[in-house]
TrEMBL record:
Top-rank taxon: Bacteria
Protein's name according to its UniProt entry: Diacylglycerol kinase
Organism: Streptacidiphilus pinicola
One term of GO molecular function: kinase activity
UniProt keyword annotations, A-Z: Kinase, Transferase
Amino acid sequence: MTRGRTTVSAERSAGEPVLVLVSPAALALDGESVRVAKDVLGAALTMKTAVPENLSDLDRLLARRGRRRPVVIGDDRYLQQVVQLLHQQATLDEAPVAVIPVGRGPRTELARALGAEVRPVQAARAVVRGADRPLDLLVDDGGGVVLGGVRIPAQRSPRANRAPSTWWTDLAGLVVRALSRPLPAPQQLRVEADGQVLADPSHPLRALALRSHDGAAELRIDACVPVQARRVTVGGSLFTYEADHTLSAPVRERTWTVEPAAWSLRVPHRP
């Protein structure tokens, strides 16, 4: 594989056909792990490998993959981009997605939380002999997908736009920060869950966390008892949020709807 443009190679072997999508960042960071993972896959599967240099190339490769199951080699952000594009193409439910995490520390936390093996060789073996785990998806009214969780207020920190973590870790972090420094200013937002008003400008909120869980959207406001719903709407004033630790542009309203078992992730088989 070479850099500078999308490169594609094919390797013939026994087994189901897969399209291995290698993140250029993963290749630059740890080319040896990428090579070893490819060797494991190539020994058992009919493999086509590509290194897309941009989202347009990635979109095209996914659209033309045919029967090949997508295998992602990269970090959480790369996995999210692949799932986003498959959702846009309305093909996300056609085949399970597999991920071989390659990234620095926290950049693979989401993959771990979803059940993937984070050691590259073992992750490659799970692609070959693993099980498919159905997962819910949060989809916003702008077409964006959320694999992990959403939080408000967005944390304007170096971690934003860098690395996802688990929903519960985020919420715990908010509590720890609240104890160690002044609480964030209350936000005058209206929050509805399936049409039921849970917060409004007369009762401002300080923190909101949202994730998909057991076929529903699970919502916590100010660390209170979680509420489950199918659809959650936040609005009332200009605000930003973090979805999978990606900072949003300012919006005045956003609605997230859960899609139960919208996709599947190949994870290690556990008896």
